[in-house]
Amino acid sequence: MTDIEPRTDGGLEWTYAPAPESRAIVSFEERYGLYVGGETVEPRSGEWFTSASPATEEPLAEVAQAGPEDVDLAVGAARAGYETWSGLRPSERAKYLFRIARILQERARELAVAESLDGGKPIKESRDVDLPLAAAHFFYHAGWADKLEYAFPNRRPRPLGVAAQIIPWNFPLLMLAWKVAPALACGNSVVLKPAETTPLTALLFADVCRQAELPPGAVNIITGDGSTGAELVRHTGIDKVAFTGSTEVGKAIQRELAGRGVPHTLELGGKAANIVFEDCALDQAIEGIVNGIYFNQGHVCCAGSRLLVQESILEPLLGKLRGRLSTLRLGDPLDKNTDIGAINSRAQLDRITELVESGQAEGAELYQPACELPERGYWFPPTVFTNVAQSFRIAQEEIFGPVLSVMTFRTPAEAVDKANNTAYGLSAGVWTEKGSRILWMAARLRAGVVWANTFNRFDPASPFGGYKESGFGREGGRHGLEAYLGFEG
Amino acid sequence: MEQATSPTRQVEPFEPFEPRLTRIGAVDAVALEARAADLAKRSIKRGSKLEALDLIVRMIDLTTLEGADTPGKVAALCAKAVRPDPVDTSVPSVAAVCVYPTLAGEARRRLDGAPVHVASVATAFPSGQSPIALKAAEARAAVELGADEVDMVIDRGAFLSGRHAEVFDQIVKVREACAPAHLKVILETGELGTYDAVRRASLLAMAAGADFIKTSTGKISPAATLPVTLCMLEAIRDVHVETGRVVGMKPAGGIRHSKQAIQYLCVLHETLGRDWLTPQRFRFGASSLLNDVLMQIRSHKTGVYETPDRFTVD
User: Fold this and answer.
1) Would the ipTM clear 0.95, i.e. be above it?
2) Which residue segment(s) compose the domain that A444 sits in?
3) pLDDT tens figures, B132-184
4) What residues contact A406, with CB distance under 8 A and at least 6 apart?
5) C-beta atoms of B52 and A288 within 8 A
C-alpha cells in the first residue's frame, strides 16, 4: 500500500496571472464639448478640466466646464427639444428607448471599460452590474412609454417639461439610466449633469443618443463641477429636479427650490444596517456582508456600512469575515479578477482616511487584511471596525468607502432600535432563516429598501429611495414614473 | 425565596466538548449559487493556467465504473494513469484509478510500484441499498484485493427518511471494516434535494470519520456542480476551523472540460486556501476530463491545438 499520509508542505501556492480586459475597445476623444440640442458645442465659458483615471492618475480626456451661459443654452435646447419629444406618439418614444437599450447592450464592453477607466470600479462590476442594469432600465421604461394611462388610471398623466438631473460618481452610467429613462418615457426632455470626476460615460452616452437618432434636444448633457449643478438648479426654465448625491448638497438644492413650485426628488446618503441573526445561513451572510460594503469600494449610498450582529454569533462571524477579506483581490480595475478597485478621487480618499482615523481615535478596533496597495492612484484596503459604539462617528456618518463598522445586538427589538437610530433611512438588510422574523423586521425598519438574505440587489421594476435624510421620491417601478408626471385627477 | 442547595453537589467548571460539534446551520441556495457563479468567472491565464492544469492531472481519480469493465480495460486505464501523455513525460501521473471491487486486484497488479493509488467503490455502489453487514464485508474485500482508498455511498433511503443516526453508524462500520484504507463518503447530492441536506450529510459523514466527502456516484444527474461543491467545502472549512480535523473533497461526475475543472480549483482556492490545493485533499472523479486537460497542456506548450486522435482513448 502506498503512503497516503497528508503532505506537510501544504498545497500549491497558486497566484492568478494578470487578466486585463483590453482597453483598446475604447477610444476617448482628446476633448469633449457639451451635448446641447443634439450637437457637440464648445463651452461659452471657455473653460475645460481633465478627467483622470483614479487607478493610475493618468489623464483620459478634457471636458468642458459649463458656465451660466452654457447652462442657459442647454435649458433652452431642452425646452425646444421638449416640444418635439412630448409631441411624439408615446409608442414612438418607446421606439427610441428600445433603441437606446439595445445600443447600450451592443456597446456594453466599450462602456464597461470606459466606466472602469474613468471611475476606478472593477471591470467585473461594470460588466456584470452597471451595464446590464443600465440597459434594463431603458428596456423597462420603454415598455411604460405608451402605457402611462394604465399605470395611473383616470389621472391623465402628462409630462412635466424640462427635467434637470444631477447624478453622482459612484454609478455614472447606471444613475444616468435611472434618471434619463423614466424622464424620456414620460415625455420630458432632459438636461443631465454627470459628476465632475466621472463624466466620460455620459459623454459616450451622447453618442449613443446620436446613434439612436434621438430627436435633438430631448437629451442634453452638460459637464462641470458643483457650480454647474447649482447654476442648473437655479435656472428658472426647469420644471423638475432629480438629484442623487450627498445629503449636504441635497439640502442646498431644496433650499434653492423652496417656494418655486418645482417638483423634485432627492436620493441622498445612507448608513444602512445589515442585521445578522444567529439562525442565518452564515456563509451566505458573509457574502452578503462583503457585497454590502465592499461592492464598488463601498461607494454605494445604500451600502451596508453598519453590521449589526446577534451577539451569540459574533466570534464565528468575525472569524469567517476575516478569512473572506483575505481573499479579496484589490488592484487594477481592468483586471477581470479584481474584486476591489480604486477609490474614486483624492478628495474621497481623504474623507475615508479622516473618518477611519477618527474611528481609531475613538477607540474602535481596526482590522485590515494583508493587502498590497498600488503605488499610483487612490486606494484604500477593505476595513472592518469592531468594538464600535453607536455614538462613534464611524457608526453615524456616511463614509462612502470600504469601511465596515460592526456592532452587536441581543434581541430583534434591539436590532430595530439600533438600525433606525441614524439620520438616514435608505436601505437595510436582514439575515435570518425565519420568514416571520423577516416580515416583522421589515415592518419596523425605517428604510426605503429592506433586503432579506441578500443585499445590493436592484431591478428597474423595484422602487428605490429613502426615509429621513436619505431623501424622498422613488426611482424605478411605477412609483418612479410618478415623479416625472403631472396629474389632472 | 431561598434556593435549596445540596451541600454535596459540586459545580464543575464548564469544559467545551472536544472535538466540538460544528454548528449545522443553514444554507441559502440563491446566495450560494451566486457565489459559485461569481467564482466561476475568475480568469485564469498563462502560467497560472498551466500550474492549474498540472495540478488537475495530479488530482484526477481516473474512473471506470461500468458493468462491462474487464481486466483488459482496467489495464489500459492503469497505463494511462501512470503516464497520461507518452509524448510529454513532464505530465505527472494521476492520483488514483477508481474501479469496482472485483477489479481492484487487477489495478493493484498493474500499478505496483507506481505513484498511483487504487481506489475501489464499495457498499452496494451506487444505491447503497444492501444490508450493512454485506456492505462492510464488501469494503473489507476491496481493501484485501488491493484498494488504498474506498469510495462508499451513504444510504440515502435512511438519510431521506430521517434515520440520520443509522447513516452515521453505517459509515462508522464501513470505516472500521476498511481501515487502514482512506475512506471517501459519497453523498449522492443529486438525490438529497436541498443544500441544507447536503450540508447536514457532509457534517454527518465527517463526524463519522470520512477522510474525504464526495458529491456523486456519477450514475445520477445532476452529479457534481459548482454550488454543491462550494457547499461541501464550506462544511469542510467549518469542521477544520472548529475541530482542526482535515477532510478532503471529491467532486465527481460531469466534469469533462479543463475550464470547468479550473473553476473548481478557484472555488477550492478561495474557500479553503492553498493548503487544500493538493491531491491529498482534493480529487476529481472523472474519466474524459483527463484528455481535455492533456490537450490544453499540449496547446499551452506548443501553441497549437492538436486533433483528439493524438490523445489515447482508453
Assistant:
1) no
2) 273-460
3) 999 999 999 999 999 999 999 999 999 999 999 999 999 999 999 999 999 99
4) A307, A309, A314, A318, A384, A385, A386, A388
5) no
